[in-house]
Amino acid sequence: MKATTDVQAVTNLIARYAELVDTGDFAAVGELFADAEFLGSGAPVRGAEAVEKMLRDSVILYEDGTPRTHHATTNIAVEADEETGTATARAYVTVFQSLPGLPLQPVAAGRYNDRFALRDGEWRFTERRVRIHLVGDVSRHLRT
């Protein structure tokens, strides 16, 4: 039963990331990566402050404090190893955005490859690799 609990806890972390980005809570996103490295399209960043800064520097926020996005994370596959207290996960991500004058549309799609560790009884990110394969109109989502 523990393996099922571990898989659910890791899956919940993946979902929490999407929720926090979509609400514009970049400080809380940073906390998810306090002990982790985040590898995206730019230089790798490590730790809460660096991840928060990376998001603030790259993602456009609107009057409501959000990026007006919806991250749909699907095809989540988690493999947890009870003996080592580690886990890996892979997932698809599609980012949708809608703004006045911009109808709801996918703006990016790709994959997450994540690593996790069990620390003090809590699952934590240790690494996230983001690979975006399909890019739409990100001009109102990302700073250039």
Helix-and-strand structural type: alpha+beta
How much is the radius of gyration in Å?
Answer: 15 Å
CATH class: Alpha Beta
How would you characterize the largest beta sheet? 6 strands, mixed
What's the end-to-end separation, in Å?
A: 47 Å
CATH architecture: Roll
Q: Are there runs of 5+ residues with pLDDT below 50, and where?
A: none
Number of β-strand runs: 6
With helices defined by DSSP (H or I, 4 residues minimum), what is the helix count? 3
The geometry reads as globular
Name the helix and strand elements from N-terminus to C-terminus, one letter apiece.
HHEEHEEEE
Structure report:
It is a single chain. The protein has helices at about 1-20, 25-30, 50-60, and strands at about 35-40, 45, 70-80, 85-100, 100-120, 120-135. The protein is globular. With about 140 residues, it is of the alpha+beta class. The chain is about 25% helix and about 45% strand. The protein has one domain (about 1-135): Nuclear Transport Factor 2, Chain: A (Roll). The longest helix has 21 residues, at about 1-20. Helix 1 packs antiparallel against helix 2 (about 25-30). Strands 2-1-6-5-4-3 form a 6-stranded mixed sheet, with helices on one face.
Helix-strand layout with pairing:
Layout: H1 2-22, H2 26-32, E1 37-39, E2 45-46, H3 48-58, E3 69-81, E4 86-99, E5 102-119, E6 122-135
Parallel strand pairs: 1-6
Antiparallel strand pairs: 1-2, 3-4, 4-5, 5-6
Give the structure's gist in a few sentences.
The protein is of the alpha+beta class and 144 residues long. Helices cover 27% and strands 44% of the residues. It has a single domain (2-135), classed as Roll (Nuclear Transport Factor 2, Chain: A).
